[in-house]
């Protein structure tokens, strides 16, 4: 039985913590879809197309991972992709409380959908996209926090601003 999972997020930008979750998911499941959310309510640094392109570069070494942008409700994207499982990354207990509430809502719409929570490896537990953006905006070195192509894209954005 092929298990298709979706790892959704805004990924603005994709961090090494996200990549850690993606790589570990790829080792566990046959088909991993990274769903890059349009998130129009968020003031993103990168467009949806830019975020999809950066994620594609970052996972090019993983043959069972695909990147797909989406807008609208996550649950509709899950149905469209005919996925069985959602992968959610958790760093803190605050993340858990938020995701736990969402998981129960998702079950109301799609009762057979399962959520699996993964924590990043210890070196990435503190890492978030907003921290990376903030460090970059203030001239800090982000090389160890994001894939190389992402670091270059962030530096270009910061220089353009």
Automatic annotation (TrEMBL):
Residues annotated as site: Transition state stabilizer: 18
Official protein name in the record: Phosphopantetheine adenylyltransferase
Origin species: Vibrio palustris
Catalysis: reaction(s): (R)-4'-phosphopantetheine + ATP + H(+) = 3'-dephospho-CoA + diphosphate
EC number(s) reported in the record: 2.7.7.3
GN (gene name): coaD
Cofactors that this protein relies on: Mg(2+)
Major localization class: cytoplasm
Compartments (UniProt record): Cytoplasm
This protein's pathway: Cofactor biosynthesis; coenzyme A biosynthesis; CoA from (R)-pantothenate: step 4/5
GO biological process: coenzyme A biosynthetic process
Enzyme class: transferase
Keywords: ATP-binding, Coenzyme A biosynthesis, Cytoplasm, Magnesium, Nucleotide-binding, Nucleotidyltransferase, Transferase
Lipid metabolism as UniProt keyword: no
């Amino acid at each position: 039985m092929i298990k298709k999972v979706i790892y959704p997020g805004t990924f603005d930008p994709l961090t090494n913590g996200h990549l850690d979750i993606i790589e570990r998911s790829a080792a566990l499941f046959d088909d991993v879809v990274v769903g890059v959310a349009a998130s129009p309510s968020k003031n993103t640094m990168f467009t949806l197309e830019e975020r999809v392109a950066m994620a594609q570069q970052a996972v090019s070494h993983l043959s069972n991972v695909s990147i797909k942008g989406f807008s609208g409700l996550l649950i509709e994207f899950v149905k469209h992709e005919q996925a069985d499982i959602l992968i959610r990354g958790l760093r803190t207990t605050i993340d858990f409380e938020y995701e736990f509430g969402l998981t129960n809502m998702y079950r109301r719409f799609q009762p057979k959908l399962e959520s699996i929570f993964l924590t990043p490896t210890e070196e990435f537990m503190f890492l978030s996209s907003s921290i990376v953006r903030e460090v970059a905006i203030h001239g800090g070195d982000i090389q160890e926090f994001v894939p190389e192509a992402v670091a270059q894209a962030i530096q270009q954005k910061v220089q353009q601003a």
